[in-house]
Design a protein that fits this description.
alpha/beta, Aspartate Aminotransferase, domain 1, Aspartate Aminotransferase, domain 2, 2 domains, 7-stranded mixed beta sheet, 3-stranded mixed beta sheet, about 40% helix
């Protein structure tokens, strides 16, 4: 009981320190607008970048999947959890992102947790070895946790300053004579708190120059970045030239769940044998698989969806700046509205919800101290009317809180 009481005390302390309610429930589909306590509000906090979470074609595919393939697999892939549609989706992803092969996981978090230890914790014929990962300072928690699963006695982790390719090259050059077995450069394609893009073209060149493997988590880029939504490699004109790509089906691609790793066929076959989150987790259910296939088909047939997202993003970024808000520059649908103060971010988020805009505040430890913000996320599901309604609310609340410059 002593330790349980300590846990209860800690829960109370956390609750007292966070007067802001973290979870706001809504009673409608994920869309451009949602229903919160009977009120229709503009959704600006969702990863539903392409509006596919509630797209009729995607929903129809999920419904048909249940009729034809059932609700769930009740098994892992290698026992009896593989249907032809799983193989079809893997091939479709590979074609879309420009790799030889793809392996599906229950989530992108699981995919990243699988990749690093599966590769670096195995001897692969070496009696003694040492590996190194060069990781961006602002990489996602899933990359960080994947690295933590690697044995410290055989894996070095070296952090380079955020998006600082010069600093990365300094680290790579310093190790030019080191006897590393694997050298891996690991980065987000898009950094989810900032909305900025990693310099994938330069990273690919550095990987080639220093004989390293380039690993890119493109979760916030797939379906979003590049003219056809093929991600940061397309944007930086190195499509098909990134060694390993991980991504998600839980954001732009339908918004449900599921992740993947794509790369050389030998690597993917190796992960099927060694990746514990793959071997010991249930296979993705048929409705998710078929809906994801439909989402990719939509994306490949109709580029206007991605264009609408890009147009909406450009419009909102231009107008929010014109109102006098300070945002982090860029062209990604993640638009950080910088406020600095954590309590201000909390109060402004609550005030905006009352004015009909669903957006969340972020503060330490999610972002650095003194960099509290509202993270606005734009979607193709938003109409111009929705965007203008949101901008009017931002102006009204911003004036009341005296945050406009």
């Amino acid at each position: 009981m002593k330790y349980l009481n300590l846990l209860v005390d800690e829960i109370q302390r956390i609750h007292d320190a966070n007067t802001y309610k973290f979870e706001t429930a809504f009673s409608s589909p994920q869309a451009g607008t949602v229903n919160v306590k009977g009120k229709n509000v503009v959704m600006m906090a969702s990863n539903n970048y392409l509006g596919m979470s509630n797209h009729p074609v995607v929903k129809k595919a999920a419904i048909e999947a249940i009729k034809e393939y059932g609700y769930g697999m009740a098994s892992v892939r290698f026992i009896c959890g593989t249907q032809t549609i799983h193989l079809e989706l893997e091939k479709k992803i590979s074609k879309f992102v420009g790799t030889e092969a793809t392996i599906l996981f229950s989530s992108a978090f699981a995919a990243n947790n699988a990749f690093f230890p599966s590769l670096l914790n195995e001897k692969l014929g070496y009696e003694t070895y040492r590996d190194v990962i060069y990781t961006d300072a602002l990489n996602h928690a899933s990359i960080i946790d994947g690295m933590r699963l690697c044995k410290t006695e055989t894996t070095d982790k070296k952090i380079y300053r955020h998006n600082d390719v010069t600093h990365l090259e300094e680290l790579l050059h310093a190790d030019i004579n080191a006897d590393y077995r694997f050298k891996i450069i690991a980065t987000d394609g898009v950094f989810s708190m900032e909305g900025d893009l990693a310099h994938i073209d330069t990273l690919a060149a550095l990987a080639q120059k220093y004989n390293a493997v380039l690993f890119v988590d493109d979760c916030h880029a797939i379906g979003v970045v590049g003219k056809s939504g093929r991600g940061t490699p397309e944007y930086f004109k190195v499509h098909g030239k990134v060694d390993v790509l991980s991504g998600t089906l839980g954001k732009a691609i339908g918004g449900a769940l599921g992740g993947y790793v794509s790369g050389k066929k030998e690597l993917i076959e190796y992960l099927r044998q060694k990746a514990r989150p793959y071997t010991f987790s249930n296979s993705l259910p048929p409705p998710v698989v078929m809906a994801s296939i439909a989402a990719f088909d939509l994306l490949m047939k109709d580029r206007s969806i991605v264009k609408r997202l890009h147009d909406n993003t450009a419009y909102f970024r231009k107008e929010i700046k014109a109102l006098g808000f300070h945002i982090l520059e860029g062209d990604h649908p993640i638009v950080p509205v910088m406020l600095g103060d954590a309590s201000l971010a909390q109060e402004m988020s609550k005030a905006l919800l009352k004015d009909g805009v669903y957006v969340k505040g972020l503060w330490f430890p999610v972002v650095p101290k003194g960099e509290a913000r509202l993270r606005v996320q734009i979607s193709a599901a938003l109409s111009k009317k929705d965007l203008d309604r949101a901008l009017n609310a931002f102006e009204s609340v911003g004036r009341k809180m005296n945050v406009l410059s």
